[in-house]
């Protein structure tokens, strides 16, 4: 199979591998910025945060992480490693509002049995459903 050229959509397997690598990297981020503060809170204040507060903290942490990287260069560390970039439908940099929409749409896309991921197998541009709906796309760098 020939190598993909810059600007072409990456293959589904490459994107799935990037997602797995991203999950490993996020374990470290979550350990430091989510687990550590809550462990310290429990140790020093002798009080545990409510589950809804921990879930909200995780959601905001992931939101800030992805929005920052997508809005500033269009690549997370995993995307850089796998040579992919997130751009708008017309190939320009992703604005924070579009990144927010993509982030919010990716949750049901993934959590509903991965239907948004499977969408890429049938999409003419091999894009995930949340990318199609958010007006973004992944391209090779």
Strand content: 5-15%
The total of beta strands comes to 2
Main β-sheet, in a few words?
A: 2 strands, antiparallel
Tell me, rounded to a whole number, the average pLDDT.
92
What's the domain count?
A: 1
Distance between the termini: 18 Å
Q: How large, in whole angstroms, is the Cα Rg? A: 17 Å
User: What string, H for helix and E for strand, traces the elements in order?
Assistant: HHHEHHHE
Fraction of residues in helices? 55-70%
- Report the uncertain regions: none
Order of strands in the sheet with most strands: 1-2
Shape: elongated
Helix count equals 6
Q: How would you classify the helix and strand content by structural class?
A: mainly alpha
Structural overview:
By secondary structure, the chain is mainly alpha-helical. The protein has one domain (12-140). Helix content is 61%, strand content 7%. The chain is built from six helices and two strands, in the order αααβαααβ. The chain has a two-stranded antiparallel ribbon. Helix 2 (51-71) crosses helix 4. It is elongated. The chain starts with 11 loop residues before the first helix and ends with a strand. 21% of the residues are buried. The model has no long low-confidence stretch (mean pLDDT 92).
What would the keywords be for this entry?
elongated; mainly alpha; single chain; 6 helices; 7% strand; 141 residues; two-stranded antiparallel ribbon
Question: What's this, in brief?
Answer:
This protein has 141 residues and is mostly helical.
Q: What's the SSE blueprint?
A:
Elements: H1 12-45, H2 51-71, H3 77-81, E1 84-88, H4 96-111, H5 115-118, H6 129-134, E2 136-140
Antiparallel strand pairs: 1-2
């Amino acid at each position: 199979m020939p190598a993909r050229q810059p600007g072409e959509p990456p293959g589904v397997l490459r994107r799935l591998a990037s997602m797995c690598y991203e999950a490993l990297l996020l374990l470290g981020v979550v350990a430091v910025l989510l687990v550590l503060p809550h462990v310290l809170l429990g140790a020093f204040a002798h009080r545990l945060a409510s589950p809804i507060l921990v879930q909200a903290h995780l959601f905001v942490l992931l939101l800030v992480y992805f929005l920052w990287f997508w809005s500033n260069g269009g690549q997370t560390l995993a995307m850089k490693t796998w040579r992919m970039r997130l751009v708008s439908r017309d190939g320009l940099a992703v604005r924070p509002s579009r990144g927010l929409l993509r982030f919010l749409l990716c949750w049901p896309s993934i959590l509903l049995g991965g239907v948004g991921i499977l969408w890429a197998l049938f999409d003419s541009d091999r894009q995930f459903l949340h990318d199609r709906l958010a007006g973004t796309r992944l391209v090779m760098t």
